[in-house]
Design a protein that fits this description.
mainly alpha; MetI-like fold; 77% helix
Length: 275
């Protein structure tokens, strides 16, 4: 009974994880490596032959290598947006934590509003068209920064609260300017939360489907998630190709999560526990 109480929740959690995550992933892999006839059955049967390369090359080369273009676009958007998020969120979180003023309440309201208020699609499209950023990759970068900045600011502010102010004062006494204090003293200490922001936001932005669908029309601007939408009609009866596309889109975020899941937890909990 004691053992059941101690390990019961663990067993339930492991079993739930297997059912919810591992079983669907195995189904995707099995279907992706089958031929068209066997994949149409949509079951867990072991394939009699393995046309892996044929399925892979067909998906890659479809529509003039659209998936390759999508990977390039998604990578550019993700790298650009995450870079700006780290720099801007760290600086805002530092200033917000260290400096107290009458504007603190207003800044807190705006940060929370960025988390709670739903995006206004039509006004955003109109604004992007007016400034010439609609249907451009750099416009999509700014959209991702705007939608994810509030969450990153909260993470950085909570973590910076754990860093003693004496470090700032000592650097100022030694003659460091404000930017030197931030970039040379504070920013190197933010590595745990920075890794968390990079990994979480990279996976989120790379997997984003709705925002590119609204703000990034055109085959030349396609992202990896939009390839599923574009290929769905073409591969509607070729489940092996459709699931191969799903597998190719799923693998990069999965690898990132598997390698950095401990850093994600460490960065999220450090500020929460100490702040």
């Amino acid at each position: 009974m004691i053992a059941l109480r101690r390990y019961g929740l663990t067993v339930i959690a492991v079993f739930s994880t297997v059912i919810i995550f591992i079983v669907p992933f195995l189904f995707i892999v099995l279907t992706a490596i089958k031929d068209r006839t066997e994949a149409a059955r949509l079951d867990f049967s072991w394939p009699t032959n393995f046309p892996v390369w044929e399925n892979f090359w067909t998906v890659i080369s479809t529509r003039n290598f659209m998936l390759v273009t999508a990977y390039i676009n998604s990578t550019l958007i993700t790298v650009g947006a995450v870079t700006l998020l780290v720099i801007l969120a760290a600086m805002v979180g530092y200033v917000r934590q260290r400096r107290k003023g009458w504007w603190n309440g207003l800044v807190d309201f705006l940060v929370l509003a960025g988390l709670m208020m739903p995006p206004a699609v039509v006004p955003t499209i109109w604004l992007l068209q007016e400034i010439g950023l609609f249907a451009t990759l750099h416009g999509m970068v700014f959209i991702q920064v705007a939608y994810n900045l509030s969450f990153c600011i909260i993470l950085y502010r909570a973590f910076i609260a754990t860093i003693p102010r004496e470090l700032d004062e000592a650097a100022i006494i030694d003659g460091a300017r404000p930017l030197d204090v931030f970039f040379r003293v504070i920013l190197p200490l933010l590595k745990p939360v920075t890794v968390t922001v990079i990994v979480v936001q990279s996976v989120t932005i790379f997997n984003d489907f709705v925002n590119p669908l609204y703000y990034l029309p055109g085959n030349q601007n396609v992202t990896v998630q939009l390839t599923l939408y574009n290929f769905q009609s073409q591969f509607s009866t070729a489940y092996n190709l459709l699931f191969m596309n799903i597998l190719l889109v799923t693998i990069p975020p999965l690898i990132v999560f598997l390698f950095y899941n401990r850093q994600i937890v460490a960065g999220m909990t450090a500020g929460a526990v100490k702040g």
